[in-house]
Amino acid sequence: MNTEIANFNYYNPTKIIFGKNRIEELATLVPKDKKVLLLYGGGSVVRFGTLDKVKAALAGYQIGEFGGIEANPTYETLMKAIELVKRDGYDYLLAVGGGSVIDGTKFIAAGALFDRDPIHIFGAGIGDKLPITKALPFGSILTLPATGSEMNSGGVVTFVEKKAKLGFGSPVTFPQFSILDPELTYTLPKRQLANGVIDSFVHIMEQYMTYPVNAMVQDRFAEGLLQTLIEIGPKVIDETNHDYNLRANFMWTATNALNGILSPGVPQDWASHSLGHEITALYHIDHARTLAIVLPSLLEIRKTEKLDKLVQYAERVWLITDGTAEEKATLAINKTREFFESLGAPTHFSDYDLDAEVVDILVDQLDKHGLSKLSERQDQTLEISRKIYQNAL
Prior knowledge:
about 400 residues, about 45% helix, 6-stranded parallel beta sheet, single chain
């Protein structure tokens, strides 16, 4: 096991425009000669006037719209958008929404220029997993902090018929720019705010909760972001609390949780997302809530393998100083579970009216999608994943 920081390259070309009333600057960001397709979700950006602000800022542009991108964007819906882009000759995309809309826009940008059927952007038995080498330019206006998609190159797409949630990414699928206006979060309900806090928290943990490699900068960045979420989370989920500084810190934390700044040179463990995606695909539980089910259980089952980092997490993030290494690790895991539940996210399958019969079904899905070697060491077998699911019942 290597205990040194690995060699790395770091690249992030996305320009961030942060603060109040920044939508007004769109005309300085989108080239005047582009035909722009606005992409959004279930209609909240229409109801709350955000889309109207976008259109006003792009007065004089050729603009079209595509709405209805789901909270877990489906391949079927996104393919309709690709058909529209090709048919009507759009050459610039603008996502207005949360991570799902931005993820979907990345796929549309890549799929519209893909030389073969876009199904081959994905592997895992769905397609042939061919590289994305070109994409339409696009920007984003973030309305829901959670996924970090506004400043990274990855995305996740749901396949309804195949009951799968699969990821993709490429250096050409970074947004050119993202507008982050914390006031756009004022319309969000408590559940979405809580989901955003949890999703961000787990993103950080998956780049941090592995084993020590003496990456002091990355570790301190991660620990600071985790402590920020612990501090502000209970206040953020109060949908009536429109404290600008609170929402600004939430938004920027969520972006930094997955913009690549935490991951250079360090091992990563995305098993929580892999296990959680299968739950969402089959049982339609909110993505963040599947993570709340999986992560504490995973840490309990994998406590021995992650003990060194769990102790560091206990001491630095939760300020636990008393007890043995084992006791510190156990208490830190318990506090993590309590934190999720304090935000209104239950952490057991039984809380969602699911019982032991789901375990075999979920493990079969992991096997079908080639997810039999997970974790930072690639040693999380299907049997270990089974134990994690069982432990979460």
